[in-house]
Amino acid sequence: NAGVTQTPKFRILKIGQSMTLQCTQDMNHNYMYWYRQDPGMGLKLIYYSVGAGITDKGEVPNGYNVSRSTTEDFPLRLELAAPSQTSVYFCASKDNSQPQHFGDGTRLSIL
Amino acid sequence: DQQVKQNSPSLSVQEGRISILNCDYTNSMFDYFLWYKKYPAEGPTFLISISSIKDKNEDGRFTVFLNKSAKHLSLHIVPSQPGDSAVYFCAAPSRDNNDMRFGAGTRLTVKP
Question: What span, in angstroms and rounded, lies between the C-alpha atoms of A28 and A101?
Answer without folding.
Answer: 12
